[in-house]
Amino acid sequence: MEFQGFRAERDDDGRRLDRVLRRFLPNLPLSAVYRLIRRGLVRVNEKRALPEARIKEGDLLSIASGALDGSPLAEIPPKIASSIPSLIELARSDDLLFLSKPAGVPTHGPGSLADLVLAREGSGHSLSFAPGPLHRLDRDTTGVIAFSLSLQGAQWFTQAIRERRLDKRYLAVLGESLETGAVWRDPCDDGKDMACEARPLARSRVYGIDATLALVRLITGRKRQIGCRQPRGVCPCSAT
User: Fold this and answer.
1) I need a surface site. Which of 48, 101, 155, 208 has the fewest CB within 10 A?
2) Which residues touch 61 (CB under 8 Å, ≥6 apart)?
């Protein structure tokens, strides 16, 4: 029986064998992954291994060629791949990538920014890690979005958010004249409060309508809570 070898890299280090295979062979159910391991169709450094075995950087994973008929990464439709050059890269390190997300492009799902980045960046040499967004923006929102390029980058970013060392600010054009900073609180449809803080940066009158360019900070993380503001609070139908 023929086997194909794959070398474990930094982002695979310390992960369980079954978890690595589950990410590397996403089209296989977990039961099929266990069946491959039991039958010796997956080997670590030329030896049989248990599902809970921990993979080390540099280990050689040998997988029976028949198990690799399905591509380990989802194919990106040509229509999506053709738009890859339109991605605007703001900053990059070995672990993180910051992009400007255009309006009309979802963060996740078919035709999403996640698909575009995966098509462009690939999964590197890692078996169990692929680039992915570390937070989300609504489809119609333009803004900075961060992607992890390594497991270390994903862990650092998640920890920074947990410790409140990262924050997000939004620029919004308000259809009114806001002279001083304000905190808006309004109930969502589910009865929970949504709140955000706005600080005016500039004011003008456009086509007979008062307008304010404001810097907005979310206090709560409700969807669609930034946008047009009614006299009694934030319009619940506005988009983030």
Assistant:
1) 208
2) 5, 6, 7, 8, 17, 20, 42, 43, 44, 55, 127
Instruction: Give me the domains of the chain, ranges plus CATH numbers.
Output: 3-68 (3.10.290.10), 78-162 (3.30.2350.10), 170-234 (no CATH)
Phi-psi sector, 20: left (phi>0), alpha (psi -120 to 50), beta: alpha
Pairing state between β 132-133 and 88-92 = unpaired
Sign of CA dihedral 197, 199, 205, 210: positive
DSSP 54: B
CA–CA dist 12, 95 (Å, integer): 14
Mean pLDDT computed over 66-85: 47
Between 96 and 108, whose confidence is greater?
96
For residue 24, count other CB atoms closer than 10 A to its CB: 23
Q: How many helices (H) and strands (E) does the chain have?
A: 5, 14
Q: What is the DSSP letter of 219?
A: S
22-36, pLDDT tens digit by residue? Answer: 877 777 788 888 888
pLDDT tens per residue across span 168-184? 888 888 888 888 888 88
- 66 vs 137, higher pLDDT: 137
Residue 91 has φ and ψ, to the nearest 5°, of: -160, 155
For residue 230, pLDDT beyond 90: no
Structure tokens at 58: 């540099």
Query: Minimal CA–CA distance to 100: which of 140, 135, 144?
Result: 144
pLDDT tier for residue 225 given thresholds of 50, 70 and 90: low
